[in-house]
Structure formats: C-alpha cells, structure tokens
Amino acid sequence: MDELKAQLEELRRKLALLEESVDPVDEVMLSIKERLRKKLSDGQLPELDEEKAAKTLKALANPDRIRILKMLSKRPMGFKEIKEALGVESPTVSHHLKLLLKTRMVRKGDKYEISPDGRLFLRLLEIITALEEVEE
User: How does pLDDT run across 8-50, given as a tens digit for each residue?
Assistant: First the structure.
C-alpha cells in the first residue's frame, strides 16, 4: 500500500511539472480542440453568426467586465465583493454581471464564478494583448 501511495505521489509530481511546462498558447489550443470535439457532431464548425459574435464582443468590450473576469479567474466572489473591488455602484455591477451571465462568461451559484468559456476568453485576450498593442 505504501508503494502505491509513493507511485501516486510521484505521478502527481510529474503531472504538476508537465502542467507547468505547457506553453500557454498550446494550453488554449488544447482546450479549444477538446471543447469543439465535444460540441461538433459532424466535425465542421458552424458558419460564423456575425450578429452573435458582435454582440458577444460588444458585451465584453468593457474594462470593468474584463476586471471582473480576472478577479473571478482567481476565485469565486459574491456581489458585494465584486462591487467593493471595482469601486462602482450596485446598478453598474448588476449590469456588468448580467451581460457576463448572458454571454456565458460567468455563472452564478452561491457566488459568481468564471465559466470555462470565460476562462478561455480571458486567456485569448491575454495572448492577443501580449502579441501587439491595439490602437483605436
């Protein structure tokens, strides 16, 4: 039994080292590939719905909403915690959370937490902004 525990601990250690060495871009691509495989029955991406894509991007194109995603990527938070961290009024926080819930970037249980879609979106933003400064 002790030998099995030692082997399990060794496997955990190796897995942790492997996870640390995964390139962030590869991590995102692997996540996308796995999620697409689950969603696509015929192996084809559906045609891009420009309206839906624009609404999603517009809903997320706000620094406070991105801050909320960043905060929730660290840990689930309650409404009051989010409000205090942002330093804005309750109606503003409600509006931000409503849009993040609608776009499925955040989900709500006892507290608000980032969804897998939100985590992926945040990671893509990090990669895009690391590649180049965006000018208006």
Answer: 788 777 767 666 665 655 666 777 777 777 767 666 777 888 9
Report d(CA 9, CA 34) in Å as an integer: 27
The residues that bridge with 107 in the sheet, in sequence order, are 113
Q: Which of 31, 118, 29, 111 is nearest to 67 (CA)?
A: 118
Nearest to 69 by CA among 119, 27, 103, 32: 119
Q: Tell me which of 9-13, 66-70, 98-102 is least confident.
A: 9-13
Task: Name 36's Cβ contacts closer than 8 Å, sequence gap at least 6.
Answer: 45
Strand-pairing partners, residue 106, are 114
Helix boundaries (H) for the chain: 2-21, 24-39, 50-60, 63-74, 79-86, 90-102, 116-131
